[in-house]
Each structure stands twice: as structure tokens, then as C-alpha cells.
Amino acid sequence: MNANLKIAIIEPSAIIRSGLGSLLRKLSGLSVSVFEILERESLVESLRLHKPDILIANPQCLLHHSFHHLKEESGCEELKFVALLSILYPKEGLLSYDGQISIYDEMPVIRQKIEQLVVVEEEATDGSGEEQQSLSAREKEIVICVVKGMTNREIADRLFLSTHTVITHRRNIARKLQIHSPSGLTIYAIVNKLVELSDIKQ
Q: What pLDDT shows up at residue 201?
């Protein structure tokens, strides 16, 4: 877990923006520094200045921004994007995000979502060589979905993740297990009792 997690928030509503910032700073077990981006025009400059790990954004604020270009222009290549939802929003508009937070989420749920993003990021960028062979609970869920023949998009919808996050998890699974095919994962899942044969037949 990052010693000091930097989170940026861009949201037009001062009440929502400040309230979320206050809540994030109180998450137990996490050292979080939060800064608010008040204007869309200063988005790139603010990202470049503060170098956050995560950007929590009202999707309306990023409608005309390419996430790829935002990372390049700000120099934040590992930046994670989280959609802040205060209204129902079309799923199609959220596919590029690494995660989602609703204004109705309770603190434990928000903490879990933030932790999950950080764990995925650290696993993906960890080049220390001593790789853990055991899968996380989330990775096991994804293995089960893969064995059942689900696509990345279907897995993302089922587990409320972005497709990008599912792909990152699958990359981590392949690296940990040194298994690079669905058939290999099927054997692994059966041997480790993650699925029954009847599950696969379905």
C-alpha cells in the first residue's frame, strides 16, 4: 500500500467535492492527501503540479478529454481514473474508467474501492522479482469468470469493474501462475477447487 496516496477530485458541486475530500482523509489505515480541482481549464496543470495516483471525476468534467492524452500531458503515466456518480450514467460512458464511486457509497465501500485500485497498481508496476504465487480474492473471482467462458466486458459488468482493470488483473494472474491460456486456467481452477465440473459445462 502506498505510504502517501495522492487523490485529486474534480466535481462542480462544492458540497460533494469537499464532502468526499473530507471523507477520504478519514479512511482508516490509509494515508491520503486530497486536493480539489476547481476548474476544468486547470485540470492538466493541476495534475502536472500535484502528480496524483488517482483522479476521482464527475464524468461530465472529462467528456472532452482523452485519458491517454491526459496522462501524457500531465506526466502521470500511472494515473487511475475513478468515475464519481451522483446520477445514473450510461455504462458506455464509463468503460474507460478504472473504477466507480457513488455519492451513496458508505465509507467501508469507498475504502475497499480505493484499496483495490492501489493493489492493482502496485502489482502491475512491481518489478522487484519476488512474485507471490497466491491469488487475491478478486483474482480468483476473475479466474472463475474466465473458466465459465465470460468475456472481459462481461466480467467487468459482473464485478462492477472497468474492462481495463479486468485486463490488468488477468495480466497479474498470468504472471503469478505462469498460465497463459483459458484451458490452463480451467485446469488450475479445478485442481484448486475454485469451480466444479458442472460449472464449466454450463
A: 53
Distance CA 126, CA 130 (A): 9
How far is the C-alpha of 184 from the C-alpha of 195, rounded, in Å?
14
Closest CA to 184 of 143, 136, 135: 143
Give the DSSP per-residue string, 46-102. Answer: HHHHH--SEEEE-GGGGTT--HHHHHHHHT-TT-EEEEEESS---GGGGTT-SEEEE
Distance CA 76, CA 50 (A): 10
Residue 76 has pLDDT above 50, yes or no: yes
Q: Can you read off the three cell numbers belonging to residue 201? A: 459445462
CA distance 37 to 120: 25
Joined together, the cell numbers standing for residue 111 give 475504502
Q: At CA 132, angle to CA 139 and CA 157, rounded to 5? A: 10
Q: For the packed helices 137-147 and 152-159, what is the interaxial angle rounded to 10 degrees?
A: 130
Global pTM value: 0.58
Task: Give the Cα separation of 7 and 153 in Å (integer).
Answer: 27
Instruction: Give the containing element (helix H, strand E) for 84.
Output: strand 80-85
